[in-house]
Amino acid sequence: MDDDKTRIRPATVLNAGIDDDRTTLLRPIHEALQIDLLDAQGNQIGHFSLSAPISVGRGQDNAIVISHEVVSRHHLIIKAEAGAWWVYNLNSTNGAYIDGRLIADREPLHLPVLIGIGVGGFYLRVLQQQTDATLVPTPQTSAPSTTEPLPSVHRTLSQNDIEARLLAEEAPPDMGDYTMMARRVIHQDRVKQAKSYKKVIWSLLGVCLVVAGLATYQHFALENTRKLALDMFYDIKTLEVNLSQADIKLEESATVLEDTLKAINQEKLRISQEQLKTQQEQIAAERQRMRLERERLAQMKAKYRQYVEEANSMRLRFPTDTEYENQLIAKVARDLGESELELPEDFVGEVRKYIGYWQGTSRLQNSIRTVEQNNLLQPVVAALQKYGLPLYFIYLPLQESNYDIRAIGPETRFGIAKGAWQLLAGTAQDFGVAPGPLANLREFDEQDGRFDFTLATQAAIKYIRKIYGTEAQASGLLVMASYNYGDNRVRELIRQMPDNPKERNFWTFLQRYELPTETRDYVFMIFSAAVIGEDPQHFGFKFNPPLYPFKS
């Protein structure tokens, strides 16, 4: 308990004594209650012996003062009425409870009782004053009772002997009136305690049943929320694939229309204005449809994030560095088109290993410096945003070439990759970039479009978009594996998987196939760099998050 927040003011202790009137032999005492103040963990932090009325609250005019925000200024009061004890809830903000039940106005107290002050706040353990059951004898001057014979010799009884006589199942024949009276008092106290223990046991059993019920409900609620989130996630993926494919077709139609207009202008083609208008209207309608679909996609993603947050809120988590890093890994996976709700545990461990690799080299720091000094990120992000692709693909040329515009790869049976995106001559040409006359030599060539960063970026991202909408099924990690030319077997393995996002994703690929070492390193290096890029300072790097200026 924080001493700065909770201060208990000592209450006036009632010294209950024996009535001076000795004309009555035995007299019960009912003027006070014993009250133990407990914290939320059940630790005793105060003890009081008070006479009614007993007020409890934050105000200094209460009998028991608890200076804490959970306690109202005047929270509750305990009174004696008509021979019974009553507790009144004084319209407190956080309520007063008995056995987890809110005291609406007032309730009689069946002592002993535990009164809760607020939910998870403080507790009052209220008991009858210990002297309630103690019968006080008045000294006698008459001769001893004949029922307890005088001993012929002086007997010394040990504490164990006394306890044995008082607690024996049957009274010994030589037990006197006073000892019998003490046995009756002990028996009555035992009966009361047994009843109290039974109440406590039943209360604990009830609490256990409630906890078990809540745990069962939480389990089913978590599974239901998780299923809803997964269903929506794969609906999103299907829509992303459809949009990517439609975008490719729309671009092809626009190119055909542009070529048609050029031919008409050069009088090489005759076509009616009606036909031309129809084609233009079709393209405009398709663009409008795709715009609406992208808006629907954004709404679905927002709803999906809500489901994921609900699912995560049902899990017990602690704000540690490990948990924070796990959240970053899950975020990058989600934005790259992989379900964080199905994130394999060994995948997280692998990502951490590759983060450690980046931390052991200056390569990432130097590459980001190159990007910043040459303002290379703007055209990459603009192209990715144009086609609705994950922005984390900015780390792909970092892995390929460290963003070296004049990079030249090794000679392979597929050719020589060149430029920051390490495009092969054939791939570059397929996407509108002409290789130079030195394409087959490991030499820099000013006429080679792959060394023009803007042109190479346009071609590379068009290529990524094609993979994204076809064989990769909107899985960013499968795109990376496909883009890597270390082993074309990867692309063949991907094509053998079912043609839908639910069954063609990186998690399924990892379960079904053994990823080649080169491709494995390639994917994990890019992914771990993206995780670091979310919070570089947390991982010990001295640069700002590269994507921060481009996030809305």
From TrEMBL:
Keywords: Coiled coil, Membrane, Transmembrane, Transmembrane helix
Pfam families in the record: FHA (PF00498), SLT (PF01464)
Coiled coil: 269-317
Keyword DNA damage: no
InterPro entries from the UniProt entry: FHA_dom (IPR000253), Lysozyme-like_dom_sf (IPR023346), SMAD_FHA_dom_sf (IPR008984), Transglycosylase_SLT_dom_1 (IPR008258)
Residue ranges annotated for the FHA domain, each copy included: 54-103
Statement: the UniProt record of this protein carries the keyword Membrane: yes
Residue ranges of the TM segments: 200-220
PROSITE patterns linked to this entry: FHA_DOMAIN
Name under which the protein is recorded: FHA domain-containing protein
